[in-house]
Structure formats: C-alpha cells, structure tokens
Amino acid sequence: MDPVKTPLGKMLLEEITPVVMVLRTPLVEESCLKNSLSFIEMLSPFCDFNNIDVPVRTSSDQPYRLQKFKLRLFYESDIKQPNIMVAKERLKQVITEAGEKDRSDLSTDPPDISNVLESSKSEISPSWFEIFNKELVRTVSFSEHEAFDHPVACVSVVSSKDEQPINKFVDLFNTNKLPSLLNDGAMDPKILKHYVLVHDNKDGPSEKATKILTEMKNTFGFNGCHLLCINSSQDEQIEHQDNPWAPYKFDSSPSQHLGRYLNIYDFNEIKDLIQELSSKHIIPYMEQKVRVLNQQVSATRKGFRNQIKNLWWRKGKEDTPDSSNGSMYTYSSVESQIRVLGDYAFMLGDYELALSNYRLVSTDYKIDKAWKCYAGVQEMMGLTYFMLDQSRKEAEYCMENAFNTYLKLGSSGRQNATRCGLWWIEMLKTKDQFKEAASVYFRICSEELLHSAVMLEQASYCYLLSQPPMLHKYGFHLVLSGDRYKKCDQIKHAIRTYRNAVSVYKGTPWSYIKDHVHFHIGQCYGFLGMYDVGVTHMLEVLACSHQSKATQELFLRDFLQIVQKAGKTFEVLRLQLPVINISSLKIDFEDHRTYASPGSTSVKESVWCSLEEEMIPSLPTARTNWLELQSKLLPKYKESNICVAGEAIKIAIEFKNPLEIPISISSVSLICELSATSDETNSDVSCSTSGIGNNEEHKNLREIISDTSSFSLSEVNISLGGGEAYLVQLTVTPKVEGILNIVGVRWNLSGSVVGFYSFGANYGKKKIAKGRRKAKQSPGNCLKFMVIKSLPKLEGFIRALPEKAYAGHLQHLVLELRNQSEFSVKNLKMKTSHPRFLNIGKQEDLDLEFPACLEKKTNVSPPANPKIASNGVFLFPEDLSVQGENLLLWPLWFRAAVPGNISLQVVIYYEMGDLSSGMRYRTLRMHYNLQVLPSLDVSFKISPYPSRLQEFLVHMDIVNKTDSESIQVNQLSTIGSQWEISLLQPIDAIFPSQSLIAGQAFSCFFVLKSCRKSSSTEESTSSLFPHIGSNVSLVPDGSKGAPFDTSNSPLADFHDCERLQHGISNQEAENSVDFILISRPLKNNAQPGVSDAHHVFSHHACHCRQEYTKLLIIISVYSTASTSPVSWVVDAPRTRHHDFSTTSFCEINFRMTIYNSSNARASIVMKTLDSTSISDQLRDETSGNQVGWHDVSLAKDNKMESDALRNHVRKSLLPESVSAFIWSGSSSTRVQLKPLSTTEIPLQICVFSPGIYDLSNYVLNWNLQPVDDHEKVGERIQSSGTSLGYPCYLTVLPSD
Amino acid sequence: MIVCVAVVGHQNNPLYIQSFTEADDALKLHHIVHCSLDVVDERVNNPKKSGLTLNETFLGLLYPTENYKVYGYLTNTKVKFILVTTDLDVRDADVRNLRYGIAKITFLSMSGVAMVVGSCGTLEVSQLIYLRESFWRSYNLFSSAHVITGVIAHCISQILEFFRRFHAAYVDAVSNPFHVPGKRITSRTFAERVSNIVKSFGLSSAG
Questions:
Q1: Do B42 and A471 touch (CB under 8 A)?
Q2: Residue B183 lies in a domain
Q3: What is the ipTM of this complex?
Q4: DSSP readout, A57-123?
C-alpha cells in the first residue's frame, strides 16, 4: 500500500507542509470580513494543490515530480506555541460539540455484539476522533526544536485604502509583533518576503490600486509584489454551491453566506495569487535553500575527515549539562541547519535526503543529550521511514524511542509524546496492528480525565478491530472511558461508551461488572432527563444480592430517585425486587370440600379422603362404562378446578427480599381474568402469551388488570427486612359464573414502581421440570377455575375445644354449625378421626350440666342406641336442616385419651337442599391440633387372693406425672356385672390427704371379687348393661355426692372406644376386668380438698387380667389366650408340730380346691411328683411350649423373673432341708369339673424330719371339653394345658 | 502478594472469585480477571507465540497492569485459573547472583540493557525475560543468560506450584456430587483451602 494513500500519509502531507506567515493591516481584514471570512480563511481553500505535476530538483541533479503540495497560512500572532489552557479549552469544546451532535440514537437499545463485530471499520469508531486528534496534534505546533512549523515565507498584505501603503508594508515587518521564533534566533530571520495589495472593488475602481502596485514594484522589486482584487460582485449575493470555505470554518452557520461578494473573477485571482506564490516563489526558494544547506552540510560533516573532526569536537563538549530544550542551538548552528535541511527535504517529498540528514543530526543530539531535539528527530525519522515504506521495524523503533524520550522529559514533553503517540498509532493501524495501537493509546492517557477518556475509547475500538477481536478488553476500556467521561460531565459520551459496553457484557454472568455498567448508564440517562431509559437500566441492578450493603442502598436510592424524578409510576413486567418464590405457590380453594379454618388445608388430602370415604356417595360408575363416563362428565370439570361464586380462593406465595436493606411493598394483589363464557379458545390465548415477547405480554397483563368488575381482590401491604421472606396470603373472590384464570401477581415497590409477575409460564415450567404428581394435569390448569353458581356453605367450629389438656381430661363441647345462605342443607353426617378423643353426644345432652350429669342417677333408663353406623359415621337426624341465621348446636364429648400431640380431624358431610345446583353435596373439614400432657400414671397388678378362690387382690399404683397439678382421686370403678370391687382398708387410713401433688406416687389395694354365674341365664342382661359395674369411692363419703356413673353415655362410649382401640370385643371379657379411675385436679394448692368441678379425669384401665399381670393404661393386652381357665388353692396348714422322737415320720393331710372358671367342662388330672428335678424339667418344657405367635408381655417377664427366683430359692433351700418329703396317697387324681364349679381333692404327704417344705412339685393337666359345639369362646381359649404348682411352704417343727 | 484468585469456566463465566485484600475492590478485580481472559484466548489460539513452554497448562504472565501482574493457568477442560498478584519480587539472593552475572558485562554498557538492570533494585519476571532475550539475541553472554534463566525458573516454579495446588483444590471441589458443573463454586471447604494455599504462597515467597 502506498504510504501516501494511508491515513497517516495523508495526515503528514497535510500537517507537515511549508508555513507562510501572513502580516496584514486591519483594513485588509475589514474588507474580507464582508464575506464573513478572515483573510487567511479566504485564501485557504486555494492553498491545497492536489493534482499537480511540478518538477522539483533538490540535492541530486535528477529532478522529480511533486504530486501534492500544500501551504499553511498563519497570522504572525498565531505563530507561537499555543497556550496549554487555551488548547485544553479548545479540545474540550471539540468533544462537547461532538457530543451534542451524537444525540441521535441515545434511547435505542444497545447494539448486539455480533452486529458490532460485523460492521465496518469506519462505522465502529465515531468520526469526530479525527478532528480531535488533529486538534491534539496542533497543540504542539511551532515548537523551537522542529523546523517544519517555521515559516518559509512571509506575506505582507496591505489594503489599497490604507494611508501610505508602502510605509505600511515596511511597518508591518518592522514591528515587534513578529513571532518569537524569528526574534530569539531559533530560525533564520531572513525569509522570503512577498507583498500583496488587496483592493476591495466595492470601494471603487482599481485605478488607485494599480498605481500603488507600480509604486510597490519600484520599491520592493518586481517579482515580490501582487495585487488582489476582491468583492467584485457588486450588488447581488452569490450563493456558492459546494461552498469551498465551509470545511475551513469550524463554527460556520448557513446564514453567514460565506464569500457572498466573491464572484468567479475573485476566485481566479486568488487562485492565481497562491499558485504564483507557491510555484514561483516558495518552491524555488525551498529548492534553493535545500541545495545550499546540503552543500554546507556536506562540506562540514560528510566525509571521513569531517566525521573524525566532529567526534573530537563533540568530545570536548561532553561535560555540558543535559539541556532538555533546544535553545542551545541557534539557526546558524550546524545541527539546526541539518534539521532545517531535513525538514525542507521532507516537505518537498525528498524523503531519502531527509532521512540521511535526520540520522546525521540524531547522533549529534544524542551525544549532546539534547533529548527533546533528539526525540523530535527520531519522530521524524520514524515518519520518514514510514513514507519511504522501507523498514517497518525501524519506523516503529524510532517512534517508540521518540515516545519514550519525550516521556522521559516529564511534563514538558508530555504533549509532544501525545502527538508522537498518535502518529505511531496511525502507523500501527495502517499495518493492522490494532492491539499494539491500543496499548499505545493506553500509554498516552494522561492524568487529565477528559483527554484519557477519549484515548481509552479509541483504545477500546482498537481492541474491537484487532484480529481476533478482544472483546473483554474492549468492554473494559469502554467502561474506563465511560467512567472518565462521566466525571467530566460529558454525559452523552459516557452513555455512548457505556452502551457499547453493555453489548459486551449482556448475557454474561459477570454480575459485578454488569451492575456497574447498568447503574452508571441509568444515572447518565437520569442526568439527561431521559428517565424511562434510565429506569430500564436501573432495573437491571436492583436484585444485587451479591453486592455489599452500602452498594445495595446506593442502587436502590438512586433508582427511586430517578423514578421519582420521572414523576410517574412505572410498570415493569419482570421486576426483580422482591424475588418471588414460585415453588412456594399454594392455592387453597373450596369446591365440594370446604374448610373450617386455614389450618385445615395443611392436612394431607389423603387423610381427608380416608375419613370421607364412607360418607360421600360414590359416583354412579356402575351403570356406565368408562368411555361413556368420559363423555358424560362435564369436560371442564376434569380440566379445571371448581370453585363457587362468592367464595374466596386463597393463594399463598412467598416474597423474598434478596437485599440486605429493608424494602416496602404495597398493594400486592392477584391478576385475574374472569370470562363469563366457558370458551376453550380463551385458555389457548393465555397459554400462548408466554411465547410472545415481553411487550405484548405486558400489554396483555395490563388489559387484564383493567377488567376487575366480576371479581374482587384483596390487597396486602408488607415490608420486608433484609434477606427476609414473607408468605403473602392473597384472595380472589369471583362474583359471577364463568372461568376464572389467575394470571399473576402485581405489587408496588416503594410506592413508585409496579411490578408484575406472571405465574403461567414459570409455574408450568417448574412443575414440568419436577415431573411430580401434577404431571397428569396440564400445568396451567391449576390456576384455572370453573366458577359455578353460589351454593350454601356450612361453617362450623367446636366451641371451647382446649388446645392443651391433661390425659384423661373429659369435657363437654358444643359443635356449632351455621349456614349463611338461605338455601338449606340436609342429610348431615359426621365423622371424627379420633373417636377416642371426640365422641358425638346425643341431642338432649346439649343442656346438661357438667359434671353433674355424670353422677349416678336413681332412675336408670336404658341407654338409647346412638345412631352410629358401623364405621363410626354419625348420622344427624334426618329432619334436621340448617338454613339462614339458624345455628345448629350439637353436643360433643371430649376426652384426652393418650398423651402426645394429636391432630384431630372432623368431617361433616351435607347435601344441598336444592337439587338443581351444580354440586349435590359438600363436606366441611375441621382440623384441630391439641397437645395432651400426661397426668396420672395408673398401673394395676392383680394377683389371686391367697387361699380364696374367685377373689383377687388388686394393687393399684398411681403416679402424678403432671408438672404442678394436684389431683384428687375420686373413684375407681370396674366395668361389667361380674366384678365387685371393694377397698382392702378404709380410704381414710391409707390415703388421708386425698390428693396427689405433682410427682407423688400412691399405692392402694383392692379386693376384686368375681361373681360370675354359671349359666347363660344372665347373659341377656349382661349384654344389655355391659357397662354396669361396681364403684369404689376413694374420697370420704361425706365430701361428695353421688358417685359417677360409669355405665352412662360419655364414659361408657369412651370405654368402648378404648376397648376397640385395644382390639377387644365386648364378648370376650370373661376373665378380664376393666377399671375406670375417676379423678379431678384440684384448683390451686391453696384450697386443698375443694375439687374443681369442671375437670374430671377418667382413666380407663382396660382389661386387666386376673393373673400375675400388671397393666398400664396404655399397654394393650394380647396374652389373654394363654390364661389357664383352671385355678386352684392348696389349703395346707402353715406350721405343724411333730414329735419325731416318737414317730419317725409325720403325715400331713390337706386339700386342694380346684375351680373351673371357663364355660366348658374341664377334665383335670393332678399329678404329684417326688423329684424336684422332674418338675424342673417339666417347667422348662412348659415354658418351651409357648413358642409361636406369642406376645412377650410385661406379665410374662414378671413370671420368668419369679421362676428364676424360685429356682434360686429352691436350690439354696435344698441342701439344708436334707430330708425331703414324699407324696403319700394317690399320685394321680382325675376329676371332671363342670363350668364355673369347684371341687376338692384330698392330699397327703409324709415328712421325716423337721424343716420347711415346698409343696409345689405337682402338675395339673387340664383339658376343656366344650359344652356347646357352637360356642365360639372355645376357639380362642386354649383347650388343654399344663399348670405347675405354685409354692406353698410348710414348716414342720419338732414338738418338745 | 496475592491479591485475587479466580476460576473461570470454559464459557468464560466466573465460577469463583476471591480477593485477599481488605479494600472494597471487587469491581476492579472482576474487571482485571475479565480482561485477562482475552489474553488467555490469545495464548490458547496461537501457542507458538507465547514464550514459556515450561508446562502446557501454565500460561505464564498474562499481562502487567498498572499495579498487578496477572498469571493464568488453563486446565484440559478449558477452565481457567487466574492469579492476580502485586509485585512479585525476585528474592535477594537471586538478585545478588544476577548482579554478579551482570558485573561481567558492564563493559558492554553501550547496549543499554545493563543500564536497565543497574537501575532496578529488584526485577520483575517480565523484565527478566526481556533481559534474557536480549542477552541471547545480541551478545554471546550465555553465562549471564543462564543465571537469569535460573532466577526466572525459580519465580515461575513458585507460581506453578501455586497453580498445581489450586488445581487440586478445584478438582476436589467439583468432584462434590452436589456441585452443579458450570455453576459458581460455593463450597466453604474449597474457600478455606484456597485461602490456605494463598497464605502459604505468601510465606514461601517472603522467605
């Protein structure tokens, strides 16, 4: 590529050209200003010769041709180094102007980065950079150390109106106004002079002017004088097409009519003047000078001898201090002459000559340590290399060297360095070394912000243009530059750079950087008053949870400021503050299922379903097959949920504040859509909205919001602290039938920004991604509701249900049902999940006085059968209907059965009185949580009464497990007619305090007597009155009235439930006894003895068994079947005195009484065993017998323990009691025993020595023969078995 | 001193950035790390140009910014590790060796290279590399070049060691079955381990 055609080449051909100094009188300027032009401006369009072909001959004999030539004209006052401050102002002005022009596309979206990459080089970087760079280069013109800015010629211009024009010419040149360059010897004051006389044709004919011209020619010589006539156009103003002056005038406006009095003659005249000046005067003068200087230089410096001489001479000067400026060289010094020679040669296009001279002088300067001059020469060398297009490397090396040397000079070289850098950059750009160019840009950044902003921006474009594009650095430098622009209040530039940066960072996860960029753009737009755009950028930074708290505050504050300034509320589709946790979305609605309290919805649907299973009518599926069913059912019913007009749908959704600072959110409400028709296309629309772009979706949402007539919405205001999450409860109540679609949620952030959030798309995605139970349902449908006609709805609650109760707490409750609508409901049914806890009373119980009603009444009426269906569903009376303002009250009995946390569910089913409505039935679901604390821990231990058949000792242990309550134990009752219970000792004796304080334990013994009758005669009565039993009052008689009636409604019902719970039916209660302990807590300890009338505890100890067993209330009893139906008593004397001296042995007679407690005939074989070891064997066998399905109960453990103990006792006893006894009489006795009868067997033993004897080594084998074949009891009770004897000790003492 | 370490995913997404300065300079460090990705890309695309071939994964000094030196390391899965340090000075002993080597060549001060060496008390690795290159190229000063090579190798090996340990920590962190590939590393163990590595690096470098 021809270096001349490159941007740098063009620039050099424009900037490094001969300078002509212009001296003029004020009158000249005056006549020019009629055209709104200064004299120089008038001439400058003609100073540029582009397509010329001028032969030039410099040092060599061979002439060459010059293609392009340019003159630069300057007034004498301008030929000086520009003031730095002025230059800065000028630069700032350029930038500001460029910014003003740039306004066009500020509000558009930032371009996509791929588009940016595709666009061409010229599109990428703004054009004003060239102007700026040119201005920047000009700030360092007219330096002393460079000769190309030194004037080559001087043109003196005098107007024909001037008095004594000839004298004026002389005056112009003599005044002290001449530039310092000429005066202080930096350049040769003898320069080419040219004299021009300007004549304004408006002032009259030109005769006078020609006269002066001849005078001039006489005075200054023929060649150097010229007459210029201007303003030839007399009256009319000339409109120039392609006004030639326009490009030369910066602040031109169309109204000025540049050159309005200049017609074509003036044009030609000016052109002639300049052409003559350059071709006949300046070029020959320069040629001449080059030749002369070259000769001089050759004479003094070229050749070996000169070089040696020079070296010696330089050596002598070595001690001179560093001189940073070039003042040590005057125009007459050889170094200056070489430099001038080089510059002239450069300007005339003889680059070879220029280069050789630059090289020559460069070493001189270096040895002299004249660094500034050295740098200047190096710079020129670089440019010359470039123009010669020879050695790129050398060119760059020279430029770098010059750049570094300038930088080393400190502040004085700073601007030169900048210019040098710019040229270097251009050089690099020409060779497509953009990356290097960018780094040079970076290096010429000065402390001055505005300057470096421009440089950084240019650097960024270089990174973009480099191959491959370095986008990261592009972005970074844009941000740096934008930051600087912003600091200098160049807002528009800042926006431009930041916007470009946005396109780099868009879509990347570098959130810190993105936040910074968006925040600053937002601010910039805010400064400019373009709040809309600013807000959109600010929105991006709102959810900046990764930032520090201070930054978050700053972001939010500035955002709100901009919003406030905008003065309107913004509606933003995806406002990121607060964050909405869509997975927390929970919808509660009531179709046929209604809920009494919000807590009810949290219970699992399956729990409810299992409760309702028995109550709700099943779908009539039997009549149709499934195909018909599909078509018959309302299709909408399947697809969407059903809700009832006038009943609220509750939506809970979590709002989370991601920031550390509190935010306030107001008017949170749902966005809903209610279409009266059941049009299916509607759903398609709502589905497809997610696919459409943001704007349309936004519009859609807005339309939806405007239509709120057919339903009402709730509004919630919340304020979220830092990092807080809040579950917002929202409701929508449809008023008319149709299809309700819940679209989303809207809220108002800090009272100024409205945010929308659409559930549809997001919710669907979430659900699909999870692929959970909702998979069957199409995702959008859970937010779609079919609204049906208003229906009666039952509301209900249980009055005064305690949340916390002690175990056994019994309370009378009232269920209250209310139906707000005027339509009646009927066929009420009810079921509770825990019948042990909640029992449904009878209607007449409603007004009972509690606990008086529990007391035994004299007239016992047979209990009416409660209407409880087999599965525990309670049917309300059929004639009952609830309607209007009527309340339905129904009594309930509550008893806290077991300690623990109980979740109690109650379902009430009801049918619509009006059959035409959409639903036949509804259910009311009630849910209560209650905590049951332990109160009394009661355990019973029943053992056979020694020596008495059919009587048992009951050992009752009570521990008060409450924290602080004192409990008075009132009454112990047994259930069933066959038991009678009585105290072993009077209660006053054993239990004087009558109440148990917290933690106290208490034991008490009772006698339990079985009064079973043998036959089935009484069976009917016992089944009729299953709960009639006997009571023992544990309080002194006088203190309280009638005992509690355990056979009546609540207690008996609960007792039944307890039995059910333990899996025992009523019938198999033969050998078991159930206890009910009634106690009451004392109100405060301050008043002992005064019992709290309203708290009655009833403890049901179910099914305690006759034998060995100890039972807690909570233990379920399984081992009933292992009971032996046969019991016996060995009626032996305890001690016997015998005189062994007279008779060596002693016979002892005693009896065994055997009782058959079963309903079957028993055949019993009693065997006596002489050896204890055999009995031990047997014992082992019997215990081994009990393999299989066998419950290892507490009782069993007890027995084992006692076995072990017994073995131990026997083993320890045996060695001492050496003499054993022998069974005399029959060793085996067989008896037949009728049901519930007793028999006696006589027994005899012989003892041979005094001692203690254990009469337990016998075995009873029994075998039951059922009386009736179809008696079912036999199936459960073991039909045969072996019982071992129990210890019975006999002491034989020698009688004295 | 290590200022910042970063892990950048293969799509140039930040996985982990941790600064070890008290100042609030997160934004700056993000920018530095983000910028250095360009250089990483460049090195990866034309590996011949990158001067150091000590280890394939080690990318060497990416670029010196105003105050920081940025080093890079690239794993086989195109995950980049970036290390931002303040001046990483050559240790005193090494400098002494260097001076000794340079003493031999002072008579050739015309080259200007020695001038650079003499004026710097401590040298940057980048300068050393430049110096070595010029020694190799311009003069037959192999001995000096070797001395410099040794010094450079010592510095580089420190950084290389750091990257190896960092890499190991990273591998352990992403082996966690609960880590989602391509997402930010939030493991606390990883953070602790990295800070330990950084601390130990500071110690060995100072000693």
A1: no
A2: yes
A3: 0.75
A4: --SSSS-EEE--EE-EEEEGGG-SPPPHHHHHHHHHHHHHHHHHHGGGGTTSPPPPHHHHHHS-HHH
